[in-house]
Amino acid sequence: MNLIGNNKILGAVCVTITSICYGLVPSFSFLSFGMGVETETLLFNKFLYASVIMWAFLLLRKINFRFSPKAILTMAVTCAGYIGMSTALYISFDYISGSLATIVSFTFPAMIVAIEMITGMEPVRFAKILAVILSFGGLVLIVWDPDMKANLIGILFAFIAAIGYVVYLFGLGSNVVKAENSFAVAGYVMLSAAFVNFFRCLFSGKPLFVTEPAQIGMMVLLSVVCVFLAILFYAIGVRLIGPGNAALVNTLEPVLACIFGHFIIGDVLTKVMLIGSALVVTAVLITNLPERSSPPAKRKPSSKEQG
Predict the structure, then answer these.
(1) Is the pTM of this model over 0.90?
(2) How far apart are CA 145 and CA 235, in angstroms?
(3) What is the C-alpha end-to-end distance of the chain, expressed in Å?
(4) Quick one: DSSP state of residue 174?
């Protein structure tokens, strides 16, 4: 198998790991809320712990974390997109279930792929269009499930989270950011999120840190699994397969969020949600089918070869 094929497989594996990590976010977060952890405190703690882990890794491995001047502005926009996404998503948790919020936020893959095809960043292919239609159709089925009780404010904030996700992913996929070290990129994303939520705690009067052992344990799980590993593997995956392909592979996240939510915190998992999830998985499989390459043209023999 050639290098491009290996990179595509490795990128898909990295993004799949990210989907598992992010799929656990709603369940772990609602378990934390049940322990009395405030939203602002949760966000500050999980990003702070993840930042400490990542920056310790950067310093111990002596990885270059200095960005070129031309990458600073794009990196700032990338961090802003991630902060907006995570903040809006957690606000939506106040109104709707974690599974439903995650599903609504996954309107972003269709946004990204559409932008890529419209701008010419990616060629228009039938398989990719079909994957977007199936993915979007699956999400619509889940959102409009008559057995689901939805709050419009929660859905609005989940949609805002999707827009933040688009900004974040295009930032990661930009040439100037891709030229930098993936570990350093993840480190700055985590640190900027911790910084913003530090001030959110101060302004809201919420405690900065949790104190009970069970709460601390959940913060460690959220920071290591749902932040450190998730951001790290996604940064690598986007570099290997691009933001559009990464976004489509990562549509596994709402499916996993529904499954984890059902078994961990008892979220409702209806037949329509299962059908929608199946469509999303089908879209992911179609997206990752190997593309047919046209056979090399036969070289016409020269007059000397003919003679």
Answers:
(1) no
(2) 33
(3) 38
(4) S
> Of the candidates 290, 286, 284, which has an alpha carbon nearest to the alpha carbon of residue 18?
284
Closest by CA to 251, choosing from 291, 221, 290, 278, is: 278
H/E stretch holding 223: helix 213-223
**SS3 at position 83:** helix
pLDDT at site 232: 80
pLDDT along the chain (307 residues), means of 10: 70 91 94 95 95 93 87 92 94 88 78 76 78 80 66 87 89 85 87 96 95 95 92 84 78 84 84 80 69 50 40
Q: Is the dihedral of CA 243, 67, 186, 233 positive or negative?
A: positive
Please name which of 233, 258, 238 lies closest in space to residue 248, comparing C-alpha atoms. 238
Q: Quick one: pLDDT at residue 239? A: 82
Q: How many residues does the chain have?
A: 307
Q: Return the pLDDT at 297.
A: 46
d(CA 296, CA 227): 45
Residue 29 has a pLDDT of: 95
**DSSP of 180-220:** S-HHHHHHHHHHHHHHHHHHHHHHHT--SS--SHHHHHHHH
DSSP letters spanning 91-105: HHTTTS-HHHHHHHH
Instruction: Give the number of C-alpha atoms closer than 13 A to the C-alpha of residue 305, restricted to the C-beta side.
Output: 4
d(CA 111, CA 224): 29
What is the rounded CA–CA span in Å between residue 227 and residue 230? 5
Residue 161's pLDDT is 94
Which among 32, 27, 140, 159 is positioned nearest to 92, based on CA atoms?
Answer: 159
